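Researcher: We're reviewing a set of sequences before deciding which ones to prioritize for further study. For each one, I'd like a predicted 3D structure that I can look through quickly. This is IS982 family transposase. If possible, include the structure in token form so it fits the rest of the review sheet.
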Amino acid sequence: MLCKDKIISIFCLIDDILQGINHPEDVRRHVSDSEIILTAIVSSTSFYGNHCSAIKFMKEYGFIPKMLDKSRFNMRLHKVGRLLYELFEIISSYFKDFCCEMQYIIDSFPVAVCKNMRITNSKILKGKKYRGYTASMRNYFYGVKVQLLTTKNGIPIAFHFTPGKTADIKALGKMIDKLPAEASIYGYSAYTDYGLEDFSLMKKCVLLKIQRKSNAKRTDTIEQKNEKLKMRKRVETTISDIKKMFPRTIHAVTLEGFLIKLTLFVFGLQLNKAIN
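Model: Here's the predicted structure for IS982 family transposase, in token form for your review sheet.
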């Protein structure tokens, strides 16, 4: 549960950014986009993504006395869906540009839209490309993967969604473009691509520090293995923190709504960790 001071701090940050980017706002509205986004963040961080509970909380505790009902709130939230990612990117740039962060970790985790026995009845997703396999858990899932990039302290600074069947290595190239020169990315063995490693170092000046398999052509020293393993555990902790905010099932009637909720979980953790 977010404390009062943190809720106020998050609102001030979001509102200042929206004013800074000249976000258009209808003056006739009683509830601003900043307040809508704040309520959605509170929902993801404190109420397992339950909008009704967050709306009730914001009203009863006087944060937003004129908060909208659930239906109108959801309509407004969908209208600012793209804005959520833009805000996330702006805050991420603070860590990359102003904090001079140079060490990053990449990993992915699956999010199923339904149980395997209900795949044929799924209305949100259709197609075999969403049928993925999780090697660590030795099971199949039907949904999307969240490709997550964090700082060495576990603060999310980049993410995007891929169909469940998509190999992790295909997401790595997009993440490299988001990083400053001379940065390092740590990742597990599924991100192994020697050609990409050479390209990123020569053209992007980004060093890929990927864990090596026992039969890898490029090997690590014991010190390098321990360093990569230590960094891997940090991103696993961050993923665990995100999953702790999930409800038993993420309810959504459209793919857009499903992805907005996932975005809010990642964005909520970023704000929760970044604001002290």
